[in-house]
Design goal:
- The chain is of the alpha/beta class.
- The chain is built from 12 helices and 18 strands.
- It binds flavin-adenine dinucleotide (FAD).
């Protein structure tokens, strides 16, 4: 098995992919740069709204070969990020975004069924747990705030039930959100690729954009050709952080994953056979699920930081932190000691200061729109992102183009080299803090202070 575990499995299921490179000068109504979920959903929504639009996607490698083809496959809503949403929008606006993100979980499953995308979608919910005593109650401030608005997406569970649903008593406490799913991420990406093509979207792969002309009619240049487009959409994930306007709005950091050998019998014995998504409440987030074939797929955040957003090859291939990820997994499932790890991989996360994506016009250019900052939660939210970008492209004045995630002003990280040095310093403080908490010890005030400078994580802290 290679490092590109999900992608290889998806290509085997889909059959050989026919690839067309961009050659020569062409024109299009819309040129989308980046063929991950965000670019493909945007293309599909544009063709749904206006079938006559000519839409092309220019992709550096193969569609889905970025983060979309190698994530954890959690499809989750924004209810866990409601406290952060409240800083961007009114309670009604925040509730609207979170509500649409919860709808997106079901919508994604329905879309896959209707379009014949077999991506092992299982609508079995999300278990949000505490894997150390210190984490217990990490959700309480959020749950209390939501209750004030009469919204109750999280079901409280007693500790025995949390242990039962996750198949391990190392989950000490937790809550459950029913509106969540897991899927095979690369099968979804290749399914969207097929649907986009069927709807008339032209896909140019193995054609990295080398330059973007920002004239009145923007032009995307690759080594073999160029696309002059009425509108350009930048859906480049971490790679987009090299653009000067976006550079300080995200830090690029690795998330690292392992997949075990199949052990369906053992997972059934410990009661971990459903398609539930699980994560704990660390900043060094542990997140895991199983596959229908009985593998455990386990990930951990906060790996390699990219200096000045230079992604390079640091996020390709097997994970250099696989041993650390395996240790975390074995700590939670000691009873699976005989099950070997079969693959590992890594990928880039475009982490924004508030953990939420942002959409807008590049440097105010009316013809160039972008979406960035999914912060490690993009499988469900890119369904929304595609609708937002399609509305911005069509200059539609609707709920999508007016929602709080469309914002030209975004909190920024410090410039380099302070950002890089600061990120490493904060990560090491977090590492020390969580190690001490795991050992039942109280971290010192300096460690707590530095760790507290971390941007909002996948799971909100008590302060939101
Ligand atoms: C290890 C890992 C685990 C994750 N787990 C989860 C999870 O369980 N649940 C969840 O919701 N989210 C998860 N995420 C995040 C999620 O995968 C992303 O938020 C989502 O895939 C973003 O989609 P995208 O289209 O923006 O990015 P991508 O899929 O990365 O697409 C961007 C595309 O742009 C292309 N590109 C870049 N530069 C150029 C260029 N110059 N020219 C042309 N094309 C270019 C890239 O090749 C890439 O295909 C995870 C991410 C990682 C890395």
């Amino acid at each position: 098995m290679t490092e590109a575990y999900w992608f290889k499995e998806a290509v085997e299921a889909a059959g050989p992919l026919s690839v067309q490179r961009l050659a020569g000068r062409i024109t299009a109504d819309v040129c989308i740069v980046g063929g991950g979920y965000l670019g493909l959903w945007t293309a599909i929504r544009l063709k749904e709204a206006e079938p006559a639009l000519s839409v092309v996607v220019v992709e550096k490698a193969l569609c889905g070969s970025g983060a979309s083809g190698r994530n954890g496959g959690f499809v989750t809503s924004y209810w866990a990020k409601y406290l952060s949403l409240l800083k961007l929008a009114t309670p009604e606006g925040a509730g609207w975004i979170a509500g649409r993100s919860a709808d997106a979980v079901r919508e994604l499953g329905d879309f896959c069924r209707e379009q014949g995308i077999d991506c092992d979608y299982r609508h079995d919910g999300w278990l949000w747990t505490a894997s150390s005593r210190h984490q217990i109650g990490a959700w309480e401030g959020l749950v209390a705030e939501l209750a004030q608005h009469d919204v109750r997406p999280f079901e409280p569970l007693d500790p025995a039930e949390v242990a039962r649903r996750g198949g391990t008593d190392r989950n000490l406490a937790g809550v459950f959100e029913a509106e969540a799913a897991t899927l095979q991420p690369a099968k979804l990406a290749l399914g969207l690729r097929r649907v986009a093509r069927e709807r008339g979207v032209a896909l140019y792969e193995e054609s990295p954009m080398q330059r973007l002309d920002r004239g009145r009619c923007p032009v995307v240049h690759t080594a073999g050709g160029s696309v002059e487009a009425g509108k350009v959409v930048l859906a480049m994930n971490a790679w987009g952080s090299r653009l000067r306007e976006l550079r300080r709005r995200v830090v690029v950091v690795a998330s690292d994953m392992i997949a075990t050998a199949p052990a369906p019998q053992r997972l059934a014995e410990i009661g971990f056979a459903s398609g539930v998504a699980i994560c704990d409440s660390r900043m060094f987030l542990n997140y895991w699920r199983n596959t229908p074939g009985g593998r455990v797929v386990f990930g951990r955040s906060l790996g390699h930081f990219a200096f000045a957003g230079r992604v390079g090859d640091n996020y390709e291939g097997p994970s250099p932190r696989a041993a650390e990820v395996e240790t975390a997994w074995r700590g939670l499932y000691p009873m699976l000691r005989e099950v070997p790890v079969a693959a590992s991989w890594t990928g880039p996360i475009d982490r924004s200061v508030d953990g939420l994506p942002f959409f807008g016009h590049l440097g105010g250019h009316p013809g160039i729109v972008y979406g960035l900052g999914f912060s490690g939660q993009g499988v469900g939210p890119t369904v929304l992102g595609g609708r937002i970008l399609a509305s911005l492209v069509r200059e539609a004045a609707d709920d999508w183009s007016h929602c709080g995630l469309v914002r030209e002003t975004v909190e920024t990280f410090p410039p380099e080299p302070f950002r890089y040095v600061g990120a490493i310093g904060v990560r090491e403080a977090l590492r020390r803090k969580e190690r001490l908490e795991d050992a039942g010890r109280k971290p010192d005030a300096a460690t707590v202070f530095v760790a507290g400078l971390a941007p909002t994580g996948y799971v909100p802290s008590k302060r939101g």
